[in-house]
C-alpha cells in the first residue's frame, strides 16, 4: 500500500480534530465520566464546536484506537463531544463492574476483549442490540463470521461488534528464509510451521545455520491447540496441549530461542535486527541483568520468526526499522485468534441512540473502515465489503504481501465454539506449568498436578480428571 503520505495527512487532520472536537481521558482510567478537572491524573475534556457541546458521549476503552475513531466522527458531527478514557486491561473489568453495579449513566460505550465478554454479557452490562431501534441482525452478513459470534451472548443476542479481525500468523524474515531454506514463499515457509514436530525440526535447521527460530519459546501460544479447555463442565487436557508443552520445553532447553520473554525490550529489538545472546534464566525485565549477560557472552544472534495475531502487523511495523520490507507472513500450525476491541452500549446509558450511531460509524460504515485501513497502516477490518475491496492491497513493510487476503482466509478457519470463559486463567496456569518444567523447577508430572490444583481452586465447579 502506498500509505506514507496519505497517513501523514490523515493523522495531521485527526490530531487537530481530537484536540478541538473530542475529549480524552487519562490512561489510568480515573475519569468516570463526570466533571473533570486539571489536577494530576486528569484532563479537562475539550469541546466540540461551541463552548458547550449539544451532545456528549463517554467512551471507556482498552485501546487508543477509539480516540482516533472519535476524532474522525467529530469531523462530520461537530455538535458532538466525545470523551474517551483509556483504561489498562488489568484494571478494566473492575472499573466497569463498579460503574455497572452502581448503575452509573456513564460511560455510554464500553468495550471488551473476547476473554472478558461472556462474563460481561452474563452480568447484564451490555445493551441488547437485536431490539429496535438497533436491529443489529440486519448487518450480520456484513461482518466476518467469527467476529459476529464473539459479539453474541450465550442466547445469541448481539451485544457488541468489533471493527477488526485478529487471526494469527507467523511473521518471518524473508532474507533469512532465502538463505536457509532457498525460498521466501509464504506457502512453502508455512509448511515449516505446519505442526509442532516440524517446528522443532525447523528450529534445529535454523540453529545449525546460526539463527534462532523465535525470540521466546512462547511464540506459539496463539497456536496452542485446536481444542477447547472446557466442555460440558469438564476440564480437557488433550494430546495437543501436551504436544504444545513439549514444543515449548524443547525450544527452550535445546537453545533454539533467544531466551527472552514476549513484550520485553529485547523481544521488540529483535524485530529490527541482531540482539545479544544471553544465558538461560536471565531476568529479561532487568536492563542491568540483560546488559551483563550480553557482555558475558559477547555474541549476537538474529531471530527468524514471531507468532502474532493480525494486530501484530502494526507492532512489527513500528519496530522493524531498516528491515522494513524484509518480513512476510504465513500460516501457523493451527487456526487461532487473540484480542480485538468489541464495542457495545452500556445498559445504563442515557445516550443510547447516539452511542449506536457511533458504533455503526466505527464498525458498519464502509467509508470509515476504508479510512481506518489507511490510517492504521494495516489493521485488518471485520467489515466484509471493505475487506473485499482491499484484498489485493500490497503491504510494503511485508514484502508487498496481500495481508488482507491472507488474514481473511485465516479467519475463515476459526471455530469460535471452542472458546470459553475459562480460557484465560486456565491458559495462564498451563503456561506457568510449562515454565516450571523448562526452567527445571518441577518435573512434568509435578507441574501438571500443580496445574490441576490451580484450576480446581480457581474453578471448583469444573470436573477434573487427573
Question: How would you summarize the topology of this molecule?
Answer:
Blueprint lengths: L3 H17 L2 E2 L30 E7 L3 H12 L3 E7 L5 H10 L7 E4 L1 H9 L22 H6 L10 E2 L5 E6 H8 L4 H6 L4 H13 L3 E3 L15 E2 L2 E2 L3 H15 L11 H5 L5 E2 L10 H11 L2 E2 L1 E7 L2 H6 L9 E4 L11 E4 L6 H12 L2 H11 L7 H7 L12 H9 L11 H16 L5 H15 L8
Helix pairs in contact: 1-2, 1-14, 8-9, 9-17, 17-18
Would you kindly provide a brief summary of this structure?
With 466 residues, the chain is α/β, with parallel strands linked by helices. Helices cover 40% and strands 12% of the residues. Helix 1 crosses helix 14 (366-376).
Model description:
The protein is an alpha/beta fold. Helices cover 40% and strands 12% of the residues. Helix 9 (239-253) crosses helix 17 (423-438) and helix 17 packs antiparallel against helix 18. It is globular.
Amino acid at each position: 500500500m502506498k500509505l506514507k503520505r496519505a497517513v501523514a495527512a490523515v493523522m495531521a487532520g485527526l490530531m487537530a480534530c481530537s484536540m478541538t472536537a473530542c475529549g480524552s481521558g487519562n490512561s489510568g482510567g480515573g475519569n468516570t465520566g463526570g466533571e473533570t478537572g486539571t489536577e494530576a491524573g486528569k484532563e479537562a475534556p475539550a469541546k466540540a464546536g461551541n463552548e458547550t457541546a449539544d451532545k456528549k458521549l463517554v467512551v471507556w476503552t482498552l485501546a487508543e484506537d477509539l480516540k482516533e475513531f472519535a476524532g474522525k466522527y467529530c469531523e462530520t458531527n461537530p455538535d458532538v463531544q466525545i470523551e474517551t478514557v483509556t483504561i489498562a486491561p488489568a484494571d478494566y473489568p473492575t472499573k466497569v463492574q463498579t460503574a455497572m453495579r452502581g448503575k452509573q449513566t456513564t460511560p455510554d460505550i464500553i468495550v471488551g476483549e473476547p476473554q472478558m465478554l461472556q462474563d460481561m454479557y452474563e452480568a447484564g452490562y451490555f445493551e441488547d442490540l437485536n431490539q429496535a431501534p438497533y436491529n443489529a441482525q440486519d448487518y450480520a452478513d456484513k461482518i466476518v463470521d467469527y467476529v459476529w459470534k464473539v459479539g453474541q451472548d450465550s442466547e445469541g443476542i448481539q451485544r457488541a461488534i468489533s471493527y477488526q479481525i485478529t487471526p494469527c500468523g507467523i511473521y518471518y524474515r524473508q532474507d533469512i528464509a532465502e538463505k536457509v531454506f532457498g525460498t521466501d514463499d509464504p506457502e512453502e515457509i508455512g509448511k515449516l510451521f505446519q505442526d509442532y514436530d516440524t517446528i522443532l525440526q525447523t528450529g534445529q535447521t535454523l540453529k545449525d545455520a546460526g539463527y534462532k527460530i523465535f525470540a521466546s519459546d512462547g511464540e506459539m501460544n496463539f497456536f496452542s491447540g485446536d481444542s477447547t479447555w472446557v466442555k460440558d463442565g469438564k476440564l480437557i487436557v488433550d494430546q495437543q496441549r501436551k504436544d504444545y508443552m513439549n514444543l515449548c520445553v524443547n525450544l527452550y532447553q535445546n537453545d533454539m530461542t533467544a531466551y527472552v520473554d514476549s513484550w520485553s525490550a529485547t523481544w521488540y529489538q529483535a524485530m529490527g535486527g541482531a540482539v545479544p545472546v544471553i544465558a538461560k534464566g536471565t531476568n529479561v525485565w532487568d536492563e542491568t541483568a540483560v546488559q551483563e549477560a550480553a557482555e558475558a557472552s559477547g555474541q549476537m544472534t538474529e531471530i527468524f520468526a514471531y507468532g502474532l495475531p493480525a494486530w501484530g502487523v502494526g507492532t512489527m511495523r513500528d519496530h522493524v526499522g531498516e528491515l522494513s520490507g524484509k518480513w512476510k507472513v504465513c500460516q501457523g500450525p493451527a487456526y487461532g485468534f487473540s484480542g480485538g476491541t468489541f464495542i457495545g452500549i452500556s445498559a445504563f446509558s442515557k445516550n443510547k441512540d447516539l452511542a449506536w450511531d457511533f458504533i455503526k460509524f466505527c464498525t458498519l460504515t464502509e467509508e470509515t473502515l476504508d479510512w481506518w485501513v489507511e490510517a492504521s497502516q494495516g489493521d485488518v477490518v471485520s467489515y466484509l465489503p471493505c475487506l473485499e475491496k482491499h484484498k489485493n492491497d500490497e503491504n510494503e513493510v511485508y514484502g508487498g504481501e496481500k495481508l488482507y487476503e491472507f488474514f481473511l482466509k485465516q479467519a475463515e478457519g476459526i471455530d469460535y465454539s471452542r472458546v470459553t470463559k475459562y480460557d484465560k486463567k486456565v491458559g495462564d496456569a498451563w503456561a506457568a506449568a510449562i515454565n516450571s518444567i523448562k526452567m527445571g523447577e518441577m518435573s512434568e508430572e509435578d507441574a501438571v498436578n500443580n496445574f490441576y490444583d490451580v484450576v480446581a481452586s480457581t474453578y471448583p465447579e469444573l470436573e477434573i480428571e487427573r
